[in-house]
């Protein structure tokens, strides 16, 4: 890498992850073959209208997903990213709603699309609660008496953390993109906030197309192969 900014003491490494980093933990991605959106319509389970129309179907969809998340384990890629914190300031910005980064030991994780292990008041989104176990019941209510829904950002909803995420990307000394098709905005636009001179390393067996972005380095590999190798180099 010609730009060695990330080697300076206290360098800040920013990592943007998508479903691909959790694929080898057994969690389905969304748009790969046999992806989650092949089995379900986004309009039926991942929009505010779906919640209004059939909350039980939405609740069941996320209960099943939560069960899979709790049964999954972090993989070598999650653990490698946690290890990076021994030498660098690391911020992980994830589109994933699983908690595998946290369970692998990463301490600075920004969940753009929420996290499935918490619920939120359907009346006041900033009221959130931990969910014990995998099932969020239809009878559970917040302290205002409104039904609890998954603490997840649905299609058509605002992404509260996107401004914070963009500011973090603008200050990256090194940017790493792992396991995302970059199909969903505004997350897919974050790479454009990283300064031109900063290296942007993409780890994915099928590297997504990125337009008008300088200084891209491609690692065509699965996360559990490419990420530990990259971290080994960075920790060297
Ligand atoms: N290792 C690394 N990357 C992988 C692996 C793997 N083992 N397997 C698949 N991938 C890559 C695919 O090549 C693809 O680029 O992971 C990416 C998965 O893309 P998507 O399924 O579109 O997932 P993601 O980009 O995270 O979706 C973004 O869309 O549905 C919404 O809210 C949902 O957060 C999600 C957002």
Spell out the blueprint of helices and strands.
Blueprint: E1 12-17, H1 20-23, H2 36-39, H3 42-45, H4 48-53, H5 55-71, H6 76-83, E2 89-94, H7 100-104, E3 109-111, E4 114-121, E5 128-130, E6 148-152, H8 162-170, E7 174-178, E8 200-203, E9 216-219, H9 223-235
Parallel strand pairs: 1-2, 1-7, 2-3, 7-8, 8-9
Antiparallel strand pairs: 4-5, 4-6
Helix pairs in contact: 6-9
Bound molecules: adenosine-5-diphosphoribose (APR).
Residues 18-20, 23-24, 29-32, 35, 95, 113, 179-181, 183-184, 204-206, 208, 222-223 line the site of adenosine-5-diphosphoribose (APR).
Q: What's the helix-strand series?
A: EHHHHHHEHEEEEHEEEH
Which range does the strand content fall in? 15-25%
Report the count of strand segments.
Answer: 9
Mean pLDDT: 95
CATH superfamily label of the largest domain:
TPP-binding domain
Provide the gyration radius in Å.
18 Å
Structural features:
alpha/beta, single chain, Rossmann fold, globular, SIR2/SIRT2 'Small Domain', 236 residues, binds adenosine-5-diphosphoribose, 19% strand, 9 strands, three-stranded antiparallel sheet, 9 helices, 30% helix
């Amino acid at each position: 890498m010609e730009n060695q900014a990330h080697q300076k003491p206290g360098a800040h490494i920013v990592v943007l992850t998508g479903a691909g980093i959790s694929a080898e933990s057994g969690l389905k991605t969304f748009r790969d073959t046999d992806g989650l959106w092949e089995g379900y319509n986004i309009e039926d389970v991942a929009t505010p209208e779906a919640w209004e129309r059939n909350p039980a179907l939405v609740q069941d969809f996320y209960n099943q997903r939560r069960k899979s998340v709790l049964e999954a384990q972090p993989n070598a890629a999650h653990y490698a990213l946690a290890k990076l914190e021994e030498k660098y300031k690391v911020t992980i910005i994830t589109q994933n709603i699983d908690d595998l980064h946290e369970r692998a030991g990463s301490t600075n994780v920004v969940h753009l699309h929420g996290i499935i292990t918490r619920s939120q008041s359907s009346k006041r989104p900033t009221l959130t609660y931990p969910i014990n176990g995998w099932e969020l019941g239809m009878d559970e209510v917040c302290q205002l008496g409104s039904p609890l829904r998954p603490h997840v950002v649905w299609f058509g909803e605002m992404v509260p953390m996107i401004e914070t995420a963009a500011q973090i990307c603008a200050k990256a000394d090194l940017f790493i993109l792992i396991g995302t098709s970059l199909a969903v905005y505004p997350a897919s636009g974050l790479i454009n906030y990283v300064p031109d001179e900063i290296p942007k390393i993409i780890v994915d067996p099928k590297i997504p197309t990125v337009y008008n972005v300088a200084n891209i380095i491609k690692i065509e590999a699965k996360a559990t192969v490419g990420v530990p190798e990259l971290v080994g180099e960075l920790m060297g």
